[in-house]
Amino acid sequence: MRKQQSSISVSGILIRGSLITLKRKCGKPTCSCVDGEMHATPALSYSVKGKTRILTLRSSDVPSIKRALENYRIAVGELEKRALSGIRLMTLHIIKAKKKG
Predict the structure, then answer these.
(1) Structure pTM?
(2) Do 42 and 56 touch, CB atoms closer than 8 A?
């Protein structure tokens, strides 16, 4: 009897990358993938120091990975808003300093 593996819990985790689908033929001469639809495997594509990496996933992990990818997008968006706010504040500070001096 095979033990059921649980899916990943990523409630507060951030993951950078893209969810992709790898398609391949298994090589068995009697498999339907020889003439028809290839086997599909979900995967996470991400880069480290300019090199693309691929992490194959279980189908049960896809919803958690999607949430973690969305968490990352939200965090980047919030950081971008804070950075732009900082630029606006610094711009106002510089303008005021120029008017005084």
Answers:
(1) 0.74
(2) yes
DSSP state of 57: -
- Provide the domain count of the chain: 1
Residue-wise pLDDT for 20-71, tens only, equals 999 999 889 889 888 888 999 999 999 999 999 999 999 999 999 999 999 9
Q: Is residue 12 part of a domain?
A: no
- What's the distance, CA 69 to chain centroid? 4
Is residue 49 in some structural domain?
A: yes
Q: Is residue 13 included in any domain, yes or no?
A: no
- Which residue type sits at 11? S
- Residue 85 CB contacts under 8 Å (≥ 6 apart), including other chains: none
The bridge status of strand 18-24 relative to strand 39-48 is antiparallel
Domain that holds residue 78: 18-100
